[in-house]
Design brief:
The complex is a heterodimer of chains A (119) and B (109). Chain A has 119 residues and is an all-beta fold. Chain A contains no helices and eleven strands. In chain A, β5 and β6 form a beta hairpin. In chain A, the strands form two sheets. In chain A, strands 2, 4, 5, 6, 9, 10 and 11 form a seven-stranded mixed beta sheet that branches. In chain A, strands 1-3-8-7 form a four-stranded antiparallel beta sheet, with no helix packed on it. In chain B, a hairpin with a 5-residue loop joins β9 and β10. Chain B is globular, with a radius of gyration of 13 Å. The relative contact order of chain B is 0.35. In chain B, the strands form two sheets. In chain B, strands 2, 4, 5, 9, 10 and 11 form a six-stranded mixed beta sheet that branches. Chain B is mainly β. Classes of the chains: A mainly beta (119), B mainly beta (109).
């Protein structure tokens, strides 16, 4: 299947600093990528849809100035958590659809996830 | 509002069969997905149903009834490695995925 890779897998940072998470589609081009966050024992929450070459579309309640998304190429999207606080500690996961498989199934391929801990 | 309901946790015995139910109320329907998520890992795709009926894939099967807003995931010949959370997700009329909270499946020897 299609491969999506995320980096870093784990990150610990001090409160007030910024953290960048990368999401790469390794064997396909993704014009759209999705960023989720997941708190323990809770479901995935879509934060934003990242669009190559244009601005990301944020879900209601997600601060676009805090969670900066850049989709500069067809294989890379980045999420930067700015001025991180302990409440931002969470599991962040990116995903993408493989256009070679068509849009009919809508199957998502997920990155490995990035666990952020803000001290 | 949009809502997906699935049990929080289930326990089953190795070698047995378990059925995980999912009911949904969404604005439109364009398919239902089941994903498996092991602790600390990202979800992986299991199945996709868009028409009523049963889809079988090895030890896993998924059923859909659109008129009832209901689906289930059936796992046969359970193995210890099947211990994971199982997420039900529905694609609504805007082709947005609405996620359930997941069912944590515990397999006992």
């Amino acid at each position: 299947g299609a491969v999506v890779s995320q980096h870093p897998s784990w990150v610990i940072c001090k409160s007030g600093t910024s953290v960048k998470i990368e999401c790469r589609s390794l064997d396909f081009q993704a014009t759209t990528m999705f960023w989720y966050r997941q708190f323990p024992k809770q479901s995935l929450m879509l934060m934003a849809t990242s669009n190559e070459g244009s601005k990301a579309t944020y879900e209601q309640g997600v601060e676009k100035d805090k969670f900066l998304i850049n989709h500069a190429s067809l294989t890379l999207s980045t999420l930067t958590v700015t001025s991180a606080h302990p409440e931002d500690s969470s599991f962040y996961i990116c995903s993408a659809r493989d256009p070679r498989r068509g849009e009919n199934t809508g199957e998502l391929f997920f990155g490995e996830g990035s666990r952020l801990t803000v001290l | 509002g949009q809502n997906i309901d699935q049990p929080t946790e289930m326990t089953a015995t190795e070698g047995a069969i378990v059925q995980i139910n999912c009911t949904y109320q969404t604005s439109g329907f364009n398919g239902l997905f089941w994903y498996q998520q092991h602790a600390g890992e990202a979800p992986t795709f299991l199945s996709y149903n868009v028409l009523d009926g049963l889809e079988e894939k090895g030890r896993f099967s998924s059923f859909l009834s659109r008129s009832k807003g209901y689906s289930y995931l059936l796992l046969k010949e359970l193995q210890m490695k099947d211990s994971a959370s199982y997420l039900c997700a529905v694609k609504d009329s805007n082709y947005q995925l609405i996620w359930g909270a997941g069912t944590k499946l515990i397999i006992k020897p």
